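Q: What would this chain look like folded?
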Amino acid sequence: MRQSMKTFMRQMIWIKTERMEAWGCSQCDWTFKPSDPLRGSSLDEMKQIYLDQREREFASHICAAHPRAKSARDDSRFPR
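A: My prediction, written as structure tokens:
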């Protein structure tokens, strides 16, 4: 039961390493990669489109499809 509760408690977090900076999942190796270039008629509209896409993709991703490599796992850097 504890594992299933952990899945429901996932959060979108900012991940910063030497190789990348991206929004990702606190429970798996999913990271947000915008599929399209920014579009919109204003900066505010482009920002809203980006945020909407990011939220939709985070909500619909399946953690089991993005497992972390065992050697790279470091749960101490993620909130519980």
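The longest strand covers residues 12-16.
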